[in-house]
Automatic annotation (TrEMBL):
Main location: other
Natural source organism: Pyxicephalus adspersus
Region ranges (Disordered): 36-60
Domain DH: 67-260
Name this protein carries in UniProt: Active breakpoint cluster region-related protein
Rho-GAP domain boundaries: 504-629
Length: 629
């Protein structure tokens, strides 16, 4: 329910949503780049703004100064978050060391040193960097220099080298200690990270494993902010050579780290994204080889009950907005490929280049999107975790395995020679020869449906006992399945009647899946991991979304022409009495969206968005909500 007065000031949530929308909109130069458009509008009059006025004769150095301050403000905000994460990680270290010398230690000193190796040093380096950078940003002008601070920071990257070398040992030690000591397990599963000092955010609960990964994630992005600063620093500025030197040191350090890391040595502890990158390389290899890492005979495979299962380690899931951004990029590339094909001058080389780019994007999406855990165990308690994109697939795996286990199966052990023969046969016996993505399809193959599908979930019958029932709808999108809709829970019945209508967006979709669940309200059966669905699947089905079959069945298909939507939007923007983003701020928006460092980009866009006059900002947010509907 929304009830907003015309003069209401938009909240932080709406502003952040608007920024993510700007990220997509401002990159589409064909539609919104005003310099190449004939829909110029009068210069906006001066309005109330927290952004300093820019004179007409403003120099490039003044613009660069403004961007440098915004980038550095983003660095400060990012550093504060990182320092809070390190503080949360270090918080249990002192009490653990205090108990290590008692008669009942939680951990030994050797275990503590292995887990927290170099974390204190990293914290002190970044705390010193933050304390020195803060006053520079607060009193920033064209004479302010910060290059020496970044140079000092990168010269201490050797500490990170030691941390990276010990990372696997730290994780393994923490995992073993958690399994052997319930007290430490409780500590490591619930570390509190406080929010920024100026925010009202409550401390968030994070696992020790996730916090131990933060320094690695941090150091791999160390060059981004240096690139942004150099871009907006004049060549004659005292900071320029210092920042260049800092960038060189940082790049050399990252190169040495990459050379030292052996993928086979880090396979067990590599975070989710990095594991999937190696999988992507596997798909692209011309000469494929197979190596057996483990196997479980079906006779030894078990599915533990919810009560018996151990908590699944926290997964480093890819944020939803990154998934949506990648899908948007794929859609743009698909449109460009179609334009090239229709154009008389469209070259095969240009089309192949676009297809190659789309293949890379689709590969990324296919490997980064699955988040639903499917875990199997052997009789000795050893478990293995798979990530799937759909609960439908997880149910299929369970059903097939349980069906095969009904046969008279015997446990066995394979010799090294038998394993070698088996893995050598994998290439001939495999059933998947290509990644299930659109760019692999020939031109005459169906690439699925695009547009919107209207689905009405009426009712269900055939249940043997009363239950609390609901349904979910899934469609495939660029090779993986996504849950798109969910009905309400119909309580205590054998014949639920939902009668709910949904509008589902299709993006190269070929199948519609429906799953019916029994809702679980018994708290004793709740799973310990948020990703695990505990509700029982009562039934499922799948419908092929073939374009010809749809037409033959007289299904109603609404096709929304994107050019019509953008054309109407451009006409509306052309008729406005002044530019929506204002002439004064438009170029700043374009420069802000081009920043490489995510924290700096977000900080810059927040400043610019709040700087719009209230009528412009309210109009922009209204358009955003309208386009979403």
């Amino acid at each position: 329910m929304e009830n907003v007065a015309p003069t209401a000031v938009p909240g932080m949530e709406a502003e952040e949503e608007a920024i993510s929308f700007l990220d997509r909109v401002l990159e589409d130069e064909d539609v919104f780049y005003l310099e190449d458009s004939d829909c110029r509008t009068p210069t906006s009059p001066d309005g109330p703004s927290s952004f300093s006025e820019t004179p007409k004769g403003e120099s490039e150095s003044d613009k660069g100064l403004l961007m440098r301050k915004l980038v550095l403000s983003g660095v400060l905000a990012s550093e504060e978050i990182y320092i809070n994460q390190l503080e949360a990680l270090l918080l249990p270290m002192k009490p653990l060391k205090a108990t290590a010398t008692t008669s009942q230690p939680v951990l030994t000193m050797q275990q503590i040193d292995a887990i927290f190796y170099k974390v204190q040093d990293i914290y002190e380096i970044h705390k010193d960097f933050y304390d020195n950078l803060y006053p520079c940003v607060q009193e920033f002008d064209n004479k302010t220099t910060v290059g020496h601070l970044f140079q000092k920071l990168v010269n201490q990257l050797g500490i990170y080298k030691a941390f990276v070398d010990n990372y696997k040992c730290a994780l393994e030690t923490a995992e073993k200690c958690s399994q052997c000591n319930n007290q430490f397990n409780k500590i490591s599963e619930d570390l509190k990270v406080k929010g920024p000092k100026d925010s009202k955010e409550q401390p968030t609960s994070v696992t020790m494993e996730a916090l131990l990964y933060k320094p690695i994630d941090r150091v791999t992005r160390s060059t981004l902010v240096l690139h942004d600063l150099l871009k907006h620093t004049p060549a004659d500025h005292p900071d320029y050579p210092l920042l260049q030197d800092a960038l060189r040191i940082s790049q050399n350090f990252l190169s040495s780290i990459n050379e030292d890391i052996d993928p086979r040595r880090t396979a067990v502890t590599t975070p989710k994204g990095e594991v999937r990158n190696s999988k992507k390389q596997f798909f692209l290899l011309k000469h494929q080889q197979y190596d057996c890492k483990w196997y479980i005979p079906l006779a030894d495979l078990v599915f533990p009950s919810v009560e018996e299962s151990e908590p699944i380690p926290q997964l480093h899931a890819t944020p939803d907005h990154e998934i949506e951004e990648m899908k948007a990029k794929i859609s743009v590339l698909k449109s460009e490929i179609q334009k090239e094909k229709k154009s008389n001058k469209g070259s095969s080389r240009a089309i192949e280049r676009l297809k190659k780019k789309m293949f890379e994007y689709e590969s990324w999406l296919l490997l980064f999107s699955p988040t639903i855990p499917f875990r199997i165990h052997n009789k000795n308690g050893k478990s293995y975790l798979f990530l799937l994109s759909s609960d439908y697939e997880r149910s299929e795996w369970r059903e097939v395995i349980q069906k095969l286990q009904k046969k008279d199966l015997q446990a066995f052990a394979l010799s090294s020679l038998e394993l070698q023969v088996l893995t050598g046969s994998c290439f001939k016996l495999r059933t998947v020869h290509n990644m299930p993505i659109i760019s692999n399809k020939d031109d005459d193959e169906s690439s699925g449906l695009y547009g919107f599908l209207h689905v009405i979930v009426h009712s269900a019958k055939g249940f043997s006992h009363s239950a609390n029932l609901y349904c979910t709808l899934e469609v495939d999108s660029f090779g993986y399945f996504v849950s798109k809709a969910k009905t309400r829970v119909f309580r205590d019945t054998t014949e639920p009647e939902w009668n709910e209508e949904f509008e589902i967006e299709l993006e190269g979709s070929q199948y519609l899946r429906i799953l019916c669940y029994e809702k679980c309200y018994d708290k004793s059966k709740l799973n310990k991991d948020n990703n695990e669905i505990v509700d029982k699947i009562m039934g499922k089905g799948q419908i092929q979304l073939d374009p010809q079959a749809v037409q033959s069945k007289n299904w109603h298909v609404d096709v929304i022409e994107m050019n019509g939507v953008t054309g109407t939007l451009k006409l509306y923007l052309r008729e406005l009495p002044e530019p929506l983003l204002t002439d004064r701020l438009y170029l700043a928006f374009m420069e802000g969206i081009a920043l490489s460092d995510p924290a700096a980009r977000e900080n810059c866009m927040m400043h610019l968005l709040r700087s719009l006059p209230d009528p412009n900002l309210m109009t922009f947010l209204f358009l955003l909500q309208h386009l979403k509907r």
